[in-house]
Write a structure and sequence with these properties.
The protein has 3 domains: 107 residues, no CATH class; 80 residues, no CATH class; 180 residues, no CATH class. The protein is built from 13 helices and 14 strands. Helix 4 crosses helix 6. The chain is elongated, with a radius of gyration of 23 Å.
């Protein structure tokens, strides 16, 4: 590494981190745990002495689009055309910084999660963690409406995020990060799978249903005693409550004729093992009403396996206040996932805050039916 270093920060990271994840920017771990102020490039001469090369072309650095960098002393935040400065801790855990070129450093994905905790809402932070530990990636991590690549490798896990946050106790952002990380679910294949899972397992005080936490896309072995019933040795359910329920999210490619036939055969195999299957689509999440019905269907299936405690919990979720809180959570999650609602936006003239597919508010009878 050169004598002076640029530490990437702020909005530049939202573009750089996906490039690192995709391999377009190579990054190697460093053992740096201490970055004194005199090692931070902050003056024009220091900044220009570092070859930005490929980085500048990939993220379109210009005077109108400054490169966001960090310094470890607020007094080093000079006014330099084409650069914008923020502060970074002088001491930090080992493994925090990655080197992407001589003299150019970026935070690890765990550190990036912690830095974003300063600005993101709870729902957006949880979904960011799920994206980092999942199998999909947006081209800009600050904008879930951008293009999304699927079947990519995770870059961290909920356990690694939790371990890093605990090592950063007291740092700015550690408190909201600590609140969000228990709800980061590993191995999600799409943002909408994450939305379905979170709406069920988040606690009621957060607008969820408080159901047991599901497993996402884990490979499940078929027990030997059931091999004669199914045509496969393993299956990979989307949102799975072991031995009880599989919620399958069918995205656009599931509409292809060949895939429809494979899906039918797969569902038949899962049902043959005594596991209930509920199918969800983009339409299922398009309104708060439909998402509410999905949650009730999931609760009914889980109650058959769990029994009376689950039925009691479900009964407590039927109040208008709880339904309104779930509608608000659904709207926030869909917004955070980059998906708008076709209907069901909050309305001041409806006490529980949303409407049905036909634009009419749900009646009290409909909510308790």
């Amino acid at each position: 590494m050169t004598d002076k270093a640029i530490v990437l920060a702020g909005k530049s990271l939202d573009v750089v981190m996906p490039l690192i994840r995709s391999g377009r920017l190579l990054a190697r771990p460093t053992d740096i745990c201490h970055l004194p102020p005199d090692r931070c490039a902050s003056r024009m001469s220091d900044l220009l002495s570092i070859n930005l090369g490929q980085l500048a072309s990939l993220i379109d650095v210009s005077e109108d689009r400054p490169l966001h960098v960090a310094v470890t002393d607020a007094r080093l935040r000079h006014r330099v055309p084409g650069f914008e400065f923020s502060t970074f801790p002088e001491e930090f855990p080992k493994g925090t910084l990655l080197e992407i070129a001589p003299g150019i450093l970026a935070p690890s994905f765990e550190c990036y999660f912690l830095l974003k905790a300063r600005d993101l809402s709870f729902e957006k932070l949880v979904l960011l963690g799920i994206e980092l530990s999942g199998r999909y990636a947006h081209t800009r991590m600050d904008d879930a409406s951008t293009a999304c690549e699927f079947l990519v490798d995770p870059v961290t896990s909920s356990r690694e995020l939790s371990r890093y946050i605990e090592s950063c106790a007291g740092m700015t952002g550690s408190r909201p990060a600590r609140a969000a990380v228990p709800w980061v679910l590993d191995n999600a294949y799409s943002p909408r799978e994450a939305v379905i899972a979170l709406e069920q397992c988040l606690p009621p005080k957060r607008g969820g249903r408080g159901y047991p936490r599901p497993i996402l896309n884990a490979e499940i072995s078929v027990p030997p005693s059931m091999r004669h019933l199914v045509a496969r040795d393993t299956f990979t359910p989307d949102v799975y409550w072991p031995e009880l329920l599989d919620v399958e999210y069918d995205g656009g490619y599931h509409n292809e004729e060949a895939q429809v036939e494979r899906d039918k055969a797969r569902v038949a195999d899962i049902q043959a093992m005594g596991i209930a299957v509920i199918s969800a689509t983009k339409l299922t999440l398009s309104t708060c009403e439909r998402a509410e019905l999905l949650g009730r269907q999931i609760g009914s299936c889980l109650a058959k396996g769990v029994g009376r405690p689950m039925r009691r919990r479900n009964a407590k979720l039927d109040s208008l206040e709880r339904v309104s809180e779930r509608a608000a959570l659904h709207a926030r999650l869909m917004d955070a996932a980059g998906s708008s609602l076709s209907r069901g936006s909050a309305r001041e003239d409806v006490p529980w805050g949303f409407t049905g597919d036909d634009g009419e508010a749900w009646s009290k009878w409909e909510l308790s039916a």
